[in-house]
Amino acid sequence: MANVVITGGSRGIGAAAVSLFAQRGDRVWFLYEKNHEAAQAVAQATGATAICCDVADTAAVEAAFSRIADVDILICNAGIVHYGLMSMMESRQWDRIFDVNVKGIFNCVNAAMPAFLKKHSGCIITVSSMWGQVGASCEAAYSATKGAVIALTKALAQELGPSGIRVNCVSPGVILTDMCASVDPEILEGMAQDSPIGRNGSAEDVAKAMAYLADAPFVTGQVLPVNGGYVM
Description:
47% of the residues lie in helices and 16% in strands. The chain has a single domain (3-226), classed as NAD(P)-binding Rossmann-like Domain (Rossmann fold, 3-Layer(aba) Sandwich). By secondary structure, it is α/β, with parallel strands linked by helices. Strands 3-2-1-4-5-6-7 form a 7-stranded parallel beta sheet, sandwiched between helices. Helix 2 links the parallel strand 2 (27-32) and strand 3. The protein is built from 8 helices and 7 strands, in the order βαβαβαβαβααβααβ. Helix 1 crosses helix 8 (203-214), helix 3 (58-65) packs parallel to helix 4 and helix 4 (91-119) packs parallel to helix 6 (140-160).
């Protein structure tokens, strides 16, 4: 039984990961920012412990991890998106997406590090996006943050490997969560048909990829695409 911490666990991919790791028999804590009702529903359904915490807030993350037993697996899933032309984006919006999507990983990894170093073992899984690999029009800031997540993953894998800590990344494609709620259904269907598998993904598809990486002791520094072959 592992001690697992999942950020952004109240909905979408994060909630699917909470459910899967809890079903495996792991002890799961998950962080969420503001949707108390959804977080409590996930906690009640899975037996996991919900902690309200903005991952961009260093002090809040440190306080959250002080309530958690020694971490074995850290899944940095929390993320936000921004749609629109970069020229129309406000500086505060740019800063916020980087604070959550990139600085949030910095904060959580550093908070988990004492437990990892004490045991000389640990597993970190980050969440990028296929847009972090190839970029997306009207999602410049999001693409930039997810590209940074990939670079950070590879750098940390090299930095932390000698301490027995593995660091890998999942890179989802079009996943049918509430992040896609504002996307035209015809566009989503077109993207599904452009995929070799002929469908878009589910949150459970990504959670299963996370479980694989958690159980793969000779895999580190890798980016695992979960996109149905949309980007190869």
